[in-house]
Design a protein that fits this description.
By secondary structure, this protein is mainly β. The protein has 3 domains: 62 residues, Roll (SH3 type barrels); 61 residues, Beta Barrel (OB fold (Dihydrolipoamide Acetyltransferase, E2P)); 60 residues, OB fold (Dihydrolipoamide Acetyltransferase, E2P) (Beta Barrel). Helices cover 4% and strands 58% of the residues. The protein has 1 helix and 16 strands. The protein has a 6-stranded antiparallel β-sheet, with no helix packed on it.
């Protein structure tokens, strides 16, 4: 466990703050006139997902959290819980409350392998790829008309997620989705 000075607390690093694991979402080091520098950060609690704004002063430090990573297989979501099983040890199953991982699970098809962050051997959060390829399950028919501005339509993917795509996308197409923004990136091919 390494000790980080105030200017080393940067985005994507996981630290312990008040003996709890937090992921640094953003940091901004600034200096106000005659004062010492301050690192203004936004931290997201790995368990609850709550975001805090914390200022670290020049004389303060934080410990980097000892977070391990395991590979896990996404199984299903039911009754308000999303279930996963450790890869290579399918008997080791665990779940997250659906509201905690809904924004990520909507882009996962069953049996997809994801990275799970663990803190003190307890699963805390999941990390999914930035881009995923999913099949379009339902797409409304394209209606000819004013498409000079590049029209879009809403389709349903095989995971149940809805996304806006260009008019030329049809049911059965495979599309690449950016999971950070939840937007269409490109068409990959046919199923």
């Amino acid at each position: 466990m390494s000790v980080l000075s105030y200017n080393e607390i940067l985005p994507k690093i996981i630290i312990t703050y008040n003996n709890e694991p937090y992921e640094v979402l953003s940091s901004h080091i600034f200096r106000m006139q005659m004062r010492k520098p301050v690192n203004q950060t936004k931290l997201r609690h790995l368990i609850s997902g709550k975001v805090l704004e914390i200022s670290f002063h020049q004389n303060e430090t934080a410990n980097e959290a000892e977070v391990d990573k395991i590979q896990a297989q996404y199984l299903y979501t039911a009754r308000g819980e999303s279930w996963f099983a450790e890869e290579g040890n399918l008997k080791n199953r665990f779940s997250f409350p659906e509201e905690m991982v809904r924004d990520k699970v909507q882009w996962l098809a069953p049996n997809v392998i994801v990275e799970v962050l663990t803190y003190e051997e307890k699963p805390m959060a999941i990390k999914i790829p930035v881009k995923v390829e999913l099949e379009v399950r339902e797409a409304p028919p394209t209606i000819k008309g004013n498409t000079a501005t590049g029209g879009t339509k809403t389709v349903v993917l095989n995971t149940g997620a809805k996304v806006n795509v260009p008019l030329f996308i049809n049911a059965g197409d495979i599309v690449r989705i950016n999971t950070d923004t939840g937007t269409y990136a490109e068409r990959v091919g046919k199923a």
